[in-house]
Every structure is written in C-alpha cells, then in structure tokens.
Design brief:
The chain contains 27 helices and 22 strands. The protein is α/β, with parallel strands linked by helices. The chain has 2 domains: about 400 residues, TIM Barrel, CATH 3.20.20.210; about 260 residues, TIM Barrel (Alpha-Beta Barrel), CATH 3.20.20. Helix 7 runs parallel beside helix 8 and helix 11 crosses helix 13. The radius of gyration is 26 Å and the shape is globular. Its EC number is 2.1.1.14.
C-alpha cells in the first residue's frame, strides 16, 4: 500500500519562537518591517523544507500568518473598518496590526505613508476559533460592505515556495466560514448575505493561482461541522458551483474539521469539488458514511492523525482501520492527513531534552506527526519497525502505574449531592457578605495578575538556572508583591490582588504542583498574535499533594486591611488549556482536578481569605460545536465548578472570571454555577455580551470588563464611563463590579497604571450619581 500524504497546515511560530520575538521587536520600534518580513520568509521556507524532507507529498502554503489567518483574509478582501482610514491597495503593516491590537495614537514607522495611525483606533473583537484555544480576530462587516482584492496572499506564498522548488497546495479560509464567523455592524443583517459580493474576489484569487501553476487549492470550511441554516447550506452550494465554473481546472480540496459533519455531509458530498477532507479523529463514524455515499471520482482526505493533541498514534490500529477503505476506493483516490492543521500542537518533541524518557515515548508533536503520516503512507509492509515502536509505546502507557492512582478513583466514587451546591441561596449569602465586607457601590478590583516585567522574567529564569538562591528569589517576589499591594491601596482599588508574580502561567503554575501533570520547555503553541502558551500534559490521575497558594495569599493579606482575593484557576479551564489524556473521559479528568482545587479553596478559607476567585476563563471554549451535545458538557462543567467551590461558608465570597465568550446561549449554565461574582469580557463588544442579562434576570453580581487589556491602548475616563452607562442599562447598580476584562500579565506598567487610575475615577463618577447600594 502506498497512499499520498497531505498536511493541512503547520505551526507558524518557529521552533524557537522566532516570530514572537520579531513581532515584538517591530511593535517596540526596535526593528523595521524588512527585518520582520525576512524572519517570516525564513520561517515559511523552513516549514516547507521540513515537510518535504519528511516525505509529505502535498505541502500547504498560505498557512502562515503574521498574526491570524482570519485577519489575513479580512485584510486581503478589503474588509477593513472605516476608522482605520484605509482607502485602497495593499494593507500596510501598521493598519494590519492596528486591526489586531488597536492603535495607541501614533505610528512608530514613518515610512508607511498613512497618516491615519495618529488617530488611535480600537482593535477588532477577538474570540475563540471554534472549540480550540486559538483566538481569531472577528471581521466587522456592514450591509453595504464592498470587497476588493488588496493583494493575492495565497498566490504570493505559492510563488515563494515555487521559487524554492517546492510545489504546494495553497490554503484559504472558505468564504462561507469567513462570513459566518464575521460580525454584523447592523442589527438584523446576516453577513452571509454578502456572498455575492465576496465570491468575485475568490474567483480572481483562484484564477491567478491557476495561471501561476497551482493544480489544487485547499479551501477550509470548518463551518461544515456546525449547525447550519438552510441559507448557509445554500451558500455552500452557490460558492462551489460558482468557483467551479470560473476556474474549472483548479481542483478544490474542501476541508471540514473539528468534528463530524453529520447532517452537513450530504451537502458536502453534492458539491462540485474534487476532494473532501474529513476529521476522522473527532468524527470517526464519518468514514462509514463516506464509504456509502462518496460520489465516483471524489478524492477523500482521511484526517487520521490527531492535529489537536500530542499523544502518539496507534499506527497499527489506524492501518487496520483503513484497509477496507483502500480496498474500496483505491490508493489514487485517498490521501492521509492530520485531522486539522497542526497549528494547535507544539513543533518538535526532539527539543524536549529534559522531558521524562518514558513519557516522551508516548508523545508526538507536529514534526513527529509528519513522521507518522509518512509511515501510514508507506503502509504496514513499508514501515514495520516504526509501527512496532508505536505499538510498544501504546502498550507501555496503558500499563503504567504512573497513570492510574486508586486513591483518586476512590475519591471520585465518594462524590455526593452535598458537594454540588452552596449551603444557602445567593440572596442569603449576599446579605452576609455585604455585612462582612462593607464594600462601596461599584466596587473596583482587577482580574488577578499584574505585569510580568522583564525583571520578573529575568529573576524567574535566574532562579530556574540556579543563578540565584531560593531565598533571594522569594525576597524579590515579596518585594514585587508588596509594591503591587501598596500601589493598589494608593490609587483606591477596593479589592486587591497579590499580582501573581510567582506564577509562570495560570494553568502551568497549578499543574506543576498537582500529580498527573507533565511540563515541557519548548512546546509552545500560538494562542493569538505573539501570545504563545505551553499547555501542560495531563497524563495520569490528578491530586493535590499539598497547598499551592496559601502562603503567598497570607503574605499579601498581611500587608493591607483591604480584602485580597485568593486566586485559583478552575478545573474546566485547566482541562481545556491542557493536552488531556485520551484514555479517560474529559468529564472524569475535570472532576479529578475539581477535587484537587476544592482542597485548595478550603485551605484558603481556613487561612482567612474572605474572597476566593476560581477562574473559568475557558469554560465556554470547551462547549461542543453542535447544540445537541451542549447539555452533557455543561452539566459536568458546572458540576466541576460546584465540586471545587462549594466547600466554604456562606460568608466566603466566590468569584469567577470568563474570557471572550458569547454568553447568550449558555446563560442558564452560568447562572447554575452560582458564583457570587462573575467578571467577563465586554469592552471590545461595547457591552453587547451583557444583552444576555436583559431577558435573563441574572441574580448574582457581575464585573463587566471596562477596558481591553489585549490592546496597548489606555482608555480614558469618559470611554469607561460610557461603557459602564451601557452596563447600567442591563444590570442593577447593586450587581455591578468594575474591573478590566482580563488579567494584566501581558501588559506593561506604563499602560496598566493610567488605565487603572482612570478605571477608579470612572467608578467614583458613577458613585456620585448613586448614593445607596441596592
């Protein structure tokens, strides 16, 4: 057996985070556009050459982005908000990055030729890419939105690879998915209505690609795994009929991924495309539907290697699984591919020289997944040793005593009803908490973290390398914590945080202190822009050997009379921001983590913490893509929050935080979590996310974020006051807290200080208009 191997996309960031450092150098004005673009060009070339060396037959191009592929497409088709001042022609870097990050009001590169950067503009909204931890920039489209080809980015990438002697398959996000994910700037307007105006741009891109020698193009339509309306299904039919007529000899590989296409599969199979990619990791049953219904001549791309997790594939099982498929369709009509782009996994396991040897044999990162693809392409006869090695690793993991802890399993079995709810209803808890805390109307606080300055990172690195002692490192951290407490007191914040200077990451910090977790040194994955994360690996049963945060909270609280929040990361967020074991249900892993966090919550309360924040920033991103599957997920996600939060007295105020989530559809579940205070992102959407609370009378307290921490912009008092005025139209004064929309770890102090001073001033203005707390 010999089947063509295809890759759908490769990580953009560079094995040593070259893109991050090039971007941040450019943004800081330390390097110019040439240096940035040269770095990007080298990364693309390295990726193409690596895939060629690994024996991948079909290599993607245009999978690279300086920031985000959805933003790239918006810029390419001229979907640029009027505030950015763009008129026509190629979109310069400053405009591109202003759409991504906002503009502070001045361009540091004077050669761009666009004076509009001096105005200062907010960034586009940002939200999660389907149910991954990757964020995309949400395009803004109006009813009369014009589209025009500003530059043919897929063509440029194809020609760049061609110049290196590598024939690629260009990748482009499909027009229906692009329109579906975009935001309408006008009420009652469905962005899919713009398809007729967008298709000519795609037709021109395709025609130019074909003229340059491209024979295939990969069009990503991950919307195929969503619940689609009749209009959206009709849009898919219209799109691929039109493109097929305009450029009939450019073959389209239509890619649907992140799940089972389900009731959209018949639609996909009727489209006039040459190939169809199916995610057989998340939708394994699709293979039988494809065998029964695939039309003659359709090339099937089988997504058999997990593009979203890091476990080594069972190559022998996969080969046995596809034997009947090969017998039915023949080798020429099949391609073997990852389930989705490899964007979502780290680049190279070989960089992890310090990782436990046994655990390392269980893993495969992007580079190793290319090897797995090559082995599958050669078949069982051509790769006997590789298949046997994979089988040994699978067996080793299944039998390892490091994976299974009977004590954890016994504790899961002891969960009872009393652990799944607070002792009293919110109204009673609120009265007790108000009497104890004596907070003013519109209390001010932050989400938890303060800037991780170069000094903080340098000190942490020095301690990790043994260059400074543990005592010296602790002295440094105590100094940073005390400075943060004193400054918060000075500007008048009502509820303080200790700043989290001792924490490397809101998930990693806890995972390093829990059993069942492993960590890497170089396994970076892009979250958005230059923000990369190293997700922990949950390989075994989870428990908490000892307290994790109590001593740092106790020290911070000793410095002030004001309340200091205990700061924890919730179980669902730890789960969703980790690479999770695949031999146990996600629900059961979440329950294990929840019980470990429950122990920490109880210990914080015993130490005297009056407020404990359990962040569930990623709760919504784990929501299944099909509504029919939501209830099961939300039930165990809410149960997990209850398990970790309900072991405290009524007087202990439980906070939680959620990032970049559309709440309208899950408001019942958020209410069921029964946190005393929830803080959420609302600044980029100008409080639109609070519309969920208009029809649903949410009883608990809410802190809608009043400024966007993902942008370097410093909003003024008037801007924050306007947002809070919108919030007051949706919520009672007695419910409102005032806070940023997320933690401040990634910002600089020179941005944070004026922003928080303005935030406190906005709160005081609101208090002057209301003299009693509801």
């Amino acid at each position: 057996m010999s089947i063509k191997t295809a890759n759908l996309g490769f990580p953009r960031i560079g094995s040593h985070r070259e893109l991050k450092f090039a971007l941040e150098s450019y943004w800081a004005g330390k390097s110019d556009a040439t240096a940035l673009l040269d770095t990007a060009k080298k990364l693309r070339a390295d990726n193409w050459k690596l895939q060629q060396q690994k024996g991948i037959a079909i290599i993607p191009s245009n999978d690279f982005s300086l920031y985000d592929h959805v933003l790239d497409l918006a810029a390419m088709v001229g979907a640029i908000p009027a505030a950015h001042g763009w008129k026509s022609g190629p979109v310069d870097l400053d405009t591109y990055f202003a759409m991504a990050r906002g503009s502070t009001g001045a361009s540091h590169h004077g050669d761009c030729g666009h004076a509009h950067h001096g105005h200062g503009v907010p960034a586009l909204e940002m939200t999660k890419w389907f149910d991954t931890n990757y964020h995309y920039m949400v395009p803004e489209l109006r009813r009369d939105q014009p589209f025009t080809l500003t530059a043919n980015k897929p063509l440029e990438a194809f020609l760049e690879a061609k110049a290196l002697g590598i024939h690629t398959r260009p990748v482009i996000l499909g027009p229906v998915t692009f329109l579906k994910l975009a935001k309408s700037t006008e009420a009652g307007f469905d962005t899919v209505e713009l398809l007729d105006w967008l298709l000519p741009v795609y037709a021109r891109v395709f025609a130019e690609l074909r003229a340059a020698g491209a024979d295939w193009v990969q069009v990503d339509e991950p919307c195929l795994v969503l619940d689609l309306s009749d209009r959206e299904r009709a849009a898919l039919s219209q799109t691929y009929r039109a493109l097929g007529e305009v450029v009939p000899d450019l073959k389209i590989m239509l890619a649907g991924y992140f799940g089972d296409m389900g009731d959209n599969l018949p639609v996909a199979l009727q489209l006039p495309v040459a190939g169809l990619h199916a995610d057989l990791v998340r939708g394994p049953l699709q293979i039988e539907a494809l065998r029964k219904k695939a039309p003659d001549g359709l090339v099937l791309s089988l997504g058999l290697i997990d593009g979203r997790n890091i476990w080594r594939a069972d190559l022998d099982a996969i080969l046995k699984r596809i034997v009947p498929v090969v017998a039915q369709f023949g080798e020429d009509r099949l391609q073997i591919a990852p389930s989705c782009s490899l964007l979502h996994v780290p680049i190279d396991l070989d960089l992890e020289t310090g990782l436990d040897g046994e655990l390392k044999t269980w893993l495969a990162f992007a580079t190793q997944k290319l090897d797995e693809l090559a082995v599958l392409g050669r078949g069982s006869i051509g790769a006997v040793e590789e298949i046997a090695a994979a089988s040994r690793a699978i067996a080793s993991r299944a039998a390892s005593a490091r994976v299974h802890d009977p004590r954890v399993q016994d504790r899961i079995g002891s969960i009872d009803a009393a652990m799944k709810g607070r002792k009293s209803a919110f109204a009673r808890r609120k009265a007790i908490q108000d009497d104890k805390l004596q907070l003013p109307l519109f209390p001010t606080t932050t989400i938890g973290s303060f800037p991780q300055t170069p000094e903080v990172r340098k000190s942490r690195a020095a301690y990790a390398k043994g260059a400074i002692s543990g005592a010296d490192y602790e002295t440094f951290l105590r100094g940073e914590t005390e400075s943060a407490i004193r400054w918060q007191e000075a500007i008048g914040l009502d509820v303080l945080v200790h700043g989290e200077f001792e924490r490397n990451d809101m998930v990693q910090y806890f995972g390093e202190q829990l059993s069942g977790f492993a960590f890497t040194a170089h396994a970076w994955v892009q979250s958005y822009g230059s923000r990369y994360v190293r997700p922990p690996i949950i390989f075994g049963d989870v428990s908490r050997p000892k307290p994790m945060t109590v001593e740092w909270w106790r020290y911070a609280q000793s410095l002030t009379e004001k309340p200091v929040k205990g700061m924890l990361t919730g179980p669902v967020t730890i789960l969703n921001w980790s690479f999770v074991r695949d031999d146990l249900s996600r629900a059961d892993v979440s329950r294990q983590i929840a019980l470990a966090i429950r122990d920490e919550v109880i210990d914080l309360e015993k130490a005297g913490a009056a407020m404990i924040q359990i962040d569930e920033a990623a709760l919504r991103e784990g929501l299944p893509l099909r509504k029919a599957d939501w209830k099961v997920y939300l039930d165990w996600a809410v149960e997990s929050f209850h398990l970790c939060s309900t072991g405290v007295a009524d007087e202990t105020q439980i906070h939680t935080h959620m990032c970049y989530s559309e709440f309208n559809q899950i408001i019942d579940a958020i209410a069921a979590m029964d946190a005393d205070v929830i803080s959420i992102e609302t600044s980029r959407s100008k409080m639109e996310l609070l519309d969920a609370f208009l029809s649903y009378k949410y009883p608990n307290e809410i802190g809608p974020g009043v400024y966007d921490i993902h942008s370097p912009r410093v909003p003024d008092v008037e801007e924050m006051t306007e947002l809070l005025t919108l919030a007051r139209e949706r919520l009672a004064d007695g419910q409102l807290w005032i806070n940023p929309d997320c933690g401040l770890k990634t910002r600089k102090w020179e941005e944070v200080r004026p922003a928080l001073v303005n935030m406190v001033s906005a709160a005081r203005l609101l208090r002057s208009a209301a003299t009693t707390r509801a």
